[in-house]
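Translate structure to sequence.
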């Protein structure tokens, strides 16, 4: 199974937030290079980040999902029926 990087983060919390969103949506993500980033200062930046990866067959849909969820507002729109 080939894995494709769909998101790159520079700290483990960001990577695991993306992983959790993907997992909740039914994808099969994994996080790569997290432990190395924790072991060596500035490793994540120098190595291109901590990678969130999914199987190649899910890559396009997972990228689109992450892009749409990042563009979504943090709060729901105001209720149109409210005075």
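Result:
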């Amino acid at each position: 199974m080939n894995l494709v990087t769909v998101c790159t983060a520079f700290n483990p919390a960001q990577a695991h937030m993306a992983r959790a969103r993907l997992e909740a949506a039914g994808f099969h993500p994994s996080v790569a290079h997290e432990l190395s980033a924790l072991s060596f200062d500035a490793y994540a930046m120098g190595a291109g980040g901590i990678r969130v990866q999914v199987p190649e067959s899910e890559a396009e849909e997972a990228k689109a999902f992450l892009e749409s969820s990042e563009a979504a507002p943090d709060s729901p729109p105001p209720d149109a029926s409210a005075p």
